[in-house]
Amino acid sequence: MENVIWGLFFLASVIQFAYLLIVFGRFAFFYRNLPEEVALVDPEGVSIVVAAKNEAAHLKDLIPMLMQQQYPKFEVVLVNDRSDDESDALLRSFSLQYSNFRTVNIRYTPAHLSPKKYALTLGIKVSEHPIVLLTDADCRPVSPQWIRRMSAPIRNDGKIFALGHGSYLALPGLLNRIIQFETLLTALYYFSFGYWKSPFMGVGRNLCYRKDFFMEKKAFKALWHIEGGDDDLFVNQHATAANAAVVVHPESITISEPKTSFRDYFTQKKRHFHAGKYYRYRDKLKIGLYSLSHLVFWLAAIGIVLTAGSGEPIALVMGFVFSRATIQYFIIHEAKKKLEGKGKMVWTMFFDVMYMVYFWVLGTLGYLSKTVRWK
């Protein structure tokens, strides 16, 4: 039994160090930003599409902020999904104030369709421009150059998808620290594999693609029955090495309001994990191999420490543990600088263990769940 535990520990260690140094490390240490655009000469138009339900409090701030984008040709299409707050009156006032602002009002959603996918589909259908840029009502672009940065790979490089980073507002407390770590680790996943020409997901808080491609694929065909997945599953189905690019620049990110209760956060993540079970097999393998080796690494390490008869095995295991923790710290730190331009991630080993527990508990619940909701 002891030999089995040691074998599992070394195998898990090899996989973990391979991911950290080769997959994640390549992005964190060697990615170089694309050359800056010299000028915007008659650029293609961009339609920002936002689906919102009872989000009047957020839209009061979001819409004026979007209108400050420094891009020559864009519109904002706000899909008001069955709201019963002050959204109707607020959106009418914005329509009078801004000539490039339009509203789509939904009063009824067919029972067999996902409400958010239905809302986004209607918004994208009526949009006027060839490039669609998606975000959420509680998100804020950090720069007036957001449209320009996010649409650049599509306008300049012939890509279909541009995958951006959606961060969360930093607040005091343990929950927010967990959210910050989990969000950055998720970004590290899909940016690293995107850099390795193997894209597998994006986030709806910051996602850009061509409208005609969306219409050609008949919107969310084969995804209507799944709550969520309007972002990651759509990308997972259609993104390839040739048609997708990651956008890495501090001016390209959005910042969202994080959940402030563990109950709301767990509900949100349960929905995300529910969508994850519909990923392509090879993409589930990418995530699963890292996550399973992560679990085995820690369980085997703990098992060896608890059963070791001398100090040498403990010293060897702790050497592996702290080496991995050190490498992970620098990778996450460098990735955060690349994506957000500043900031540090501290206590990464503590949150690494927290993330492992959360992933396997919530991941299992989300995978097995049959009912999840958008709002």
From TrEMBL:
Segments traversing the membrane: 6-29, 287-308, 314-333, 345-368
Coiled coil: none
Domain Glycosyltransferase 2-like: 47-164
One function term, GO molecular function aspect: glycosyltransferase activity
Record has Ribonucleoprotein as a keyword: no
InterPro entries: Glyco_trans_2-like (IPR001173), Nucleotide-diphossugar_trans (IPR029044)
Key words of the record: Glycosyltransferase, Membrane, Transferase, Transmembrane, Transmembrane helix
Recorded superkingdom: Bacteria
UniProt keyword Transmembrane helix present: yes
Family statement drawn from the similarity comment of this UniProt entry: Belongs to the glycosyltransferase 2 family.
Protein name: Glycosyltransferase, catalytic subunit of cellulose synthase and poly-beta-1,6-N-acetylglucosamine synthase
Lineage: Bacteria, Pseudomonadati, Bacteroidota, Cytophagia, Cytophagales
